[in-house]
Amino acid sequence: MKNFYIFSGVNKSTYSIDYVDEVNMGPKNPKSISISTAVESIFNALWKPKKPLQNVKLMAFFYLIIALLVSPLTGHAQHFTPENTGTNPIKDPYMFHVMEDNTGNIWMSTAGGLTKFDGTNYTNYSLADGIVSPFAKVTYQDISGNIWIGTTAGISKYDGTTFTNYTTTTDSLIYDRINTICQDNNGNMWFGTASNWPGTVGGVSKFDGNTWTNYNVNSGLPSNEIYEIIQVGNDMWFSTKYGVAKFDGTNWSAFTAANGLVSNTTYAIASDNANNIWIGTDSGVSKYDGTSFTNYTTSDGLSDNRVYDILVDGTDIYFGTENGLSKFDGTSWTLLPPSGLASNKINSVSKDNSGNLLIGTAIGAAKKNGTGWIEYSTDDNGMLSSSSYAIIVDNNGDMWTSGMAGASRFDGNTWIGYNQKDGLSANYFWSMLKDNSGNIWLQSTSDSSVTKFDGTTFSNIPLPHHYEECSYLDQNGNVWLGSYWLGGAIKFDGASWTVYNDSIIPSGRVYSIMDDALGNMYFATDNGIIKFDGSTYSNATVVPNGYYSELFRDSHDNLWFTGYNTYYKYDGTNLTTFTSASDGITEGSCNDIVEDAYGRIFFGTNKSVDMYDGNSWTTFSTADGLPDARIFSLGIGSNNKLWVGYSAAGVYSFGIPVANENLMAEAPTKIAPNPTNGTFQITPQTDHGEIEISTVLGQVILSKPFAHAKTIDIDLSNYLNGVYWVTIKSAKGTQTMKIIKQ
Prior knowledge:
Elements: E1 3-9, E2 15-21, E3 26-27, H1 35-47, H2 56-69, E4 81-82, E5 95-100, E6 106-110, E7 113-117, E8 122-124, E9 136-141, E10 147-151, E11 154-158, E12 163-166, E13 178-183, E14 189-193, E15 204-207, E16 212-215, E17 226-232, E18 235-240, E19 243-247, E20 252-255, E21 266-271, E22 277-281, E23 285-288, E24 293-296, E25 307-313, E26 316-321, E27 324-328, E28 333-335, E29 346-351, E30 357-361, E31 364-369, E32 372-376, E33 390-393, E34 399-403, E35 406-410, E36 415-418, E37 429-434, E38 440-444, E39 449-453, E40 458-462, E41 470-473, E42 479-482, E43 489-492, E44 497-500, E45 510-515, E46 521-525, E47 528-532, E48 537-539, E49 550-553, E50 559-563, E51 566-570, E52 575-579, H3 580-583, E53 590-595, E54 601-605, E55 609-612, E56 617-620, E57 631-636, E58 642-646, E59 651-654, H4 661-665, E60 670-672, E61 679-683, E62 688-695, E63 700-707, E64 712-715, E65 722-730, E66 733-741
């Protein structure tokens, strides 16, 4: 663990120096130390003399260096604090893909980033190393020994020294979210991508070293969501979301369930020595001999029907499934569960250079060594996973977050992790809620059940099918769960379950649920908002028809509906519309909404947090210390801190200064321009008071009284670019706002 110092210049003669821990990114001691102590400590840390620093001339020289480094300008510093602390050698235990290169390095594409293990040391790659994005989904070694990395933001080629990056912006790549990579016999690189919603973008890109050629559904692919690519003879084969495709260089052929495939959702594809095509789906395995399909499921001996990867090893074929590893020798099936590992979900199956099985699971990677397994995983000092898909606070004030590797609980000092070993039904949980009895409910994406934690014991409750997308506790204490994959919703009234399926909710997929003060239920679906009054369903007419990602009922019984680039607030009579163009909310979709104790509403989006205080909007982004990544979850802690969860960057927290409620009810103080290049004007809504400008660390850099002033001029030209707080103090109370200098 490294430690360092933060120097914050308040004016030309006064400096504050805070001792900071690299992992926690916060002062170990809230009190500032003297500059002489800091200088001596830094010198001793850098040069490590056998005796303390005593040379006066050298000390004077070092003071001069510090004086040059510490300018009279106040710097912008992070004020969102990372909470997923730990000393994990691997970025995240959830393994998308694992492989060994020809020099013996093991490459792990995890939910938290790319990790390389050389047999002794772990190396984690970041943007500073030159990679296009640290969030890798797949790695591939070409015939020249280059490592190709498919990420969520493009492609990187690593030659052992330098990264070369390819994206849709700089090149002709069809889409930046890469799922799979393959090199054909002619040396062409093929890349299969994910697709956007509703599937109009994405597909396949072929790169010959100079030219890009793109293919999508208009070319003959059954879907733009590509899961795997292989070459068999001269033909390229693709497993996709809606079937399998073959491309002979000129013509496309598609195969679906109508042709005999066990399911249209095809995750994995491989070929055996007889050129049979093996396809792993969400409902079993299909073998295609060139004429017809033969299907295998759990009734034949497969360990689980959800098959994510396939490895052909001579006459043996291995299948990585949701519940273990299966081997088929052409006649019989053998189950090979990785005994002792935290997860039986096998996402990746390959072989190392010595012929040992190498697997990537939902909680770590492992290599089969004789009769046992060598495990590569994280330690237990932090969150189980850097993915955070839901955040709640329990009755003890502990923060809970769920992700790809289980659930983690934070008591203010220590993280405690829970997964299948502890009694959970699965390791991948998308949504959570707390009911009126304090029970924690966790929705699994990988099986038809829900897990309930009563504070002591985990209980797994079977459900009719997957209800994994969203959860909601209505005003009567009923627990509602919504489904994305199979559609519909289900309600638990404390005694029994009631199913509301596709025939009742005609638009199928349910993204979010809420109720209003009258007890009407609202469901966000693909085709708009469905309203249910307890007996009759109808399309809600309070908002325009369309796609809505999140629904929320605030403490004043206003109903919030978030569409693409637009938020709607309905107070029972009037509909208010907020847009990215006119109100400054973040472009894109909203993924979560919470309200704090002061009535401020926070919206987690793809890149930032939007806050609405009842009068105006404030956006928190990378300038405030948040990573530039998609926000999946929000939560409000017992101390009213805002918690922000990411798909691959862990969780961050921050106590945002609160404006006085009396001032919030009045016309807000105006600041313009904001952002500013240094000078701006404040238009206060009170006659007498004082203005304070402070850094994000809370250091006051300017204090200015005012009386009967319509506008107040402020000049921050001599301060560094960054975020500052503007505080208005008066007899009416205190109001705090954010100003950005750029």
